[in-house]
Amino acid sequence: MLESQVTLSPSRLTLARHLRGQTKVELAAASGISRRSLANYEAGRSLLGQSAAMRLAQVLNVSIEFLMAAEVDPPPAEAISFRSLSRLPARTRDRACALATLASHLSDWLTDKIDLPEADLPDWQYVNPEAAAEGLRAQWGLGVEPCPPLVPLLEAHGVRVFSLARLANQWVGLDGLSFWHGTTPIVLIDTAMPTSRLRMSLAHELGHLVLHKAHGLADRRVTEHEAAKFASAFLLPSNSLTTCGVRTYNVEAIVQLKAVWGASVAALARRLYEIKMLSEWNYRQVFIQLSILGWRKGEPEDTERPLPSEASVLLRKVFTTLRTDGTTRPAVAKALHLEMDDLDALLVGLVPTTVAPVATP
Ligand SMILES: [Zn+2]
């Protein structure tokens, strides 16, 4: 008897393979399906038998419903703000793009269910990054004060923030990424980073969203530099730092500023030097001291004056509302044809319910 055939979405098969970080060769070997057949399935040139479809779903740890749902349109890697695209292994880049795609699906689904803030971000392609940061601070009414927690701030202005922590854990330097999904700005961030670095990375991605919407990220060297400038100016506005009355900065004085501004000592030192609040000699002294302290590779968090949490306010509210209406997180995962673990990967570090379960003895 002929086996019944299954129509799955070729783009979803590719998405699932990328999500699991597998090459076609690896998936062929793991599933026992020939490389040629697999290439044909992914290109949409042939139908799968039911048993082959089930085997692929099992090997990829996705549901058969996931593979059979509507075609997907992942954001191209060129449209995503990877900090070092050329150095990023293809496998990691593809996994990040797959996560970004799932994030856009979750964002669409939530927007459909609940009234969420719309994007309130200017499109300032040709604006100098320093002026753009100042302009956005003014537009958002931040005055001259330090930025409040950035995740809720961005969320309130229509940016959807999701977690990149599980993937970032495997590739140093993949702190965050951002892209425009239609009219919705989306950021994925390594929530496991120290808070001061997390804040700078969020401000960096905000810079990309504001400065590079219209013309993209073609020249990575320029766009990375612009986003870094924006981030520094957004978190550490020069008019606030130059009027705070301090004349000489050493590491101890900058550590005090860290607790106020929520930026690392290294980032603060760079900014103070940039706005001429730190002489070149003093700037070098600060970095020599940071090296002696062993802080160049990572500064300890100030346990006596910890920075406020960068947890999500929006996602917590959304999932609480959904639960009140009888929609649990497993139901959300099911609606999106996702495994719970894949949904949690987008939320880890942002909402408390996704703390890793304690292993049972
Ligand atoms: Zn960047």
Write a structural description.
- The protein has 361 residues and is mainly α.
- It folds into three domains: 5-72, 434 Repressor (Amino-terminal Domain); 76-235 and 311-361, Arc Repressor Mutant, subunit A; 239-306, no CATH class.
- The chain is 52% helix and 6% strand.
- It contains 18 helices and five strands.
- It has a three-stranded mixed β-sheet with strand order 3-5-4, sandwiched between helices.
- β4 and β5 form a beta hairpin.
- α1 packs across α6.
- The longest helix has 24 residues, at 90-113.
- The protein is elongated.
- The N and C termini lie far apart (48 Å).
- The relative contact order is 0.11.
- The site of zinc ion has 6 residues, from α10 and α11.
Quick recap of the structure?
Helix content is 52%, strand content 6%.
Could you name the key traits of this structure?
361 residues; mainly alpha; Arc Repressor Mutant, subunit A; 3 domains; 6% strand; elongated; disordered C terminus; binds zinc ion
Which fold name is given in CATH as the topology of the largest domain?
Arc Repressor Mutant, subunit A
Structural class: mainly alpha
For the largest sheet, list the strands in their spatial order. Answer: 3-5-4
Mean of pLDDT: 89
Principal-axes geometry comes out as elongated
Bound molecules: zinc ion
